[in-house]
Amino acid sequence: MQDYIRQQVKDSIETKQKFLADEKNIELLDTIAAELIAAYRAGKKTLIAGNGGSAADAQHIAAEFVSRFYFDRPALASIALTTDTSALTAIGNDYGYELLFSRQLEANGQAGDFYIAISTSGNSPNVLKSLESAKKLGIKTIGFTGATGGKMKSLVDYCVCIPSNETPRIQECHILVGHILCAAVEKALFEKEFRKPKG
Length: 199
Prior knowledge:
By secondary structure, the protein is of the alpha/beta class. It is built from seven helices and five strands, in the order ααβαβααβαββα. Helix 6 (125-137) links the parallel strand 3 (114-118) and strand 4.
């Protein structure tokens, strides 16, 4: 079992190393970070959604924006579309599971906002449907997905494809990417004013 545990850690590290080795990924995250920084400066927000583990990631990333990441600073508007059980069950019951996130985007999104859609396969029907809705609403889109990008790849403005086909490895990198974007936004907007020097 110890060898199995070691292999799991090695596999996670190797996936991150593959992601890091492709300079296009670094350039992409730099571009996305700049877009998010500009959106927040313009008073916009992020909306985030996914299913299962990706729903948990959506909540995690939204919490980092709203609360804090590395240091105390003003809150940043971010909504995980996975948390309101009354809305989720009402939409699922009245309109169907495929419209779970679309309906919430219609209610809470505005042109110029950013929607981070998370799907390890890139083919989750409710996520794909929500990306179509985001486009109609003028909401910019970022996809977090796996190696192929799935159907999501052609529907988003920016697609972060993790170089793996294994769900756990993809999800581990998704939260890393989420952390990078949160840190970049926080640093650009608030570091000089709010970050206290150490010592």
